[in-house]
Amino acid sequence: MTTGQANRPFEITEDMLHGYVDGQLPPAQRASVEAWLATHAEKAAEVAQWRRQNAALTTLFGPVAGEPLPDRLNPRRIAARNAARQWDWTRLAAAAIVVIAVSVGAGWFLRTATWQEEPRSDRLIDGALLAHSLYVKESRHAVEVAADDKAHLVTWLSNRLGRPIDTPDLAPEGFTLVGGRLLPPLPDTGTGPAAQLMYQNKTSNRLTVYITAAINPPGPAYKTYTEDGLEAYYWANSQITCTVIGDLPQSDMTTVARGVFQQLTWRPDPTGRT
Amino acid sequence: MSDFLDEIEACVPALRRYARALTRDADRADDLVQDCLERAIRKRALWRPTGPLQAWLFRMLLNLYRNDIRRQRRRGEHTPLETMAIEPTTPAAQHGHLALAEVQRALDKLPEEQREALLLVVVEGQSYLEAAQILEIPAGTLMSRLGRARAALRVLTGTAEEPRLRTVK
């Protein structure tokens, strides 16, 4: 672009002409380009056009640099936000490590404590109790699908369990359906996902019905379990397992559980209706 | 870090202007600049850029812009020609001036590489050396892109004929 022979006009190069237009020539070369242009009208006209192009481009876009900057282009804000984000991430990572450590520890503990000893039915009861304790406390998120969408709830859960599930009517016992949700399979039970139905009475007392596909081998047909004031009624047939959990007085629980049992179990041909 | 942020802040108006000239879309341009600043600030935590900060930022902005173009092409989108920095109704031309709208339309028709080079030199006022470094091309390539861009603009704005007509007269 810049070759030294400033005083020899015949050495003027195209690059020098660009340099002239863009103000990137040393003064000596500038002068010789000007002198050369004075005798080359056609090139001078072209260079004049370049200048006009430059002027037009500068007019078009120059003012953008004077516009007030929006907040989102403020480097300090960006830096502050990055720092906050990084902090979030660090905390999240720390939390994840704790969760993993606890899960692995708990998993190992449960495994050693229960391996080959605890029947699958007990594991299902445990799972049902955990799910019960977790979700009966929720107000807005107690269920995934509410009772007002019962048809969908029934179809969905039946499909996911691979079993026709109906929602027992517990009105005679004073309970109405709140809704239901799908829960992940419990490890080492081989039953696939579980459905949890939740019911509530007028005093906002809640009970849940935890249903899975049948286990194989079937194990005990009937079990009860009491823990921390919670009553669990479990039974199994060739199609499903079902655990009813609540904290009603035992006699009431028995009544409710029997209601559930009758409605869910005594179906002439369960595979015939979906 | 705070000196670095000051230095970056000083570059923002120019980055913004260049992005606007390239994209001709204020929001898209600011998105690119924001992305560029975020990357710069994030990377700064890891290493110190060698060479002038402004060139580093421009290089990053260009890469983001090129990625953006590639993505848009894949999606088959087009920036509407109507999104202009300045109203295209600007009346043409006092004598000896080029109609801005016409220049803008002509600019849109330039190949990317020529437009990037021309705007870097003319609008951003970068020296040829800096511009070549930002574009990561040899100085000779920069000059030839500049030459081709200017020649194309003359043809596209219909001013290339002017001198010949004059000589005919």
Give your account of this protein's structure:
The complex is a heterodimer of chains A (274) and B (169). By secondary structure, chain A is an alpha+beta fold. Chain A contains 7 helices and 7 strands, in the order H-H-H-H-H-E-H-E-E-E-E-E-E-H. A 7-stranded antiparallel sheet of chain A has the order 1-2-3-4-7-6-5, with helices on both faces. By secondary structure, chain B is an all-alpha fold. Chain B is built from 8 helices and no strands.
Structural class of chain A: alpha+beta
Which spans of chain A have pLDDT < 50 for at least 5 consecutive residues? 1-7, 270-274
**Biggest sheet character of chain A:** 7 strands, antiparallel
Distance between the termini of chain A: 83 Å
Work out the oligomeric state of the chains in this entry.
Answer: heterodimer
Helix-strand blueprint:
The complex is a heterodimer of chains A (274) and B (169).
Chain A (H helix, E strand, L loop, with lengths): L13 H8 L5 H12 L2 H21 L13 H40 L5 H16 L9 E2 L3 H12 L14 E8 L10 E7 L5 E8 L8 E6 L2 E7 L3 E7 L3 H16 L9
Chain B lengths: L1 H22 L2 H19 L8 H23 L24 H10 L2 H11 L5 H8 L3 H18 L5 H7 L1
Helix pairs in contact in B: 1-2, 1-3, 2-3, 3-6, 5-6, 5-7, 6-7
Please outline what is shown here.
The complex is a heterodimer of chains A (274) and B (169). By secondary structure, chain A is of the alpha+beta class.
Search tags:
heterodimer, A: 274 residues, alpha+beta, 7 strands, rod-shaped, disordered N terminus, disordered C terminus, B: 169 residues, mainly alpha, 70% helix
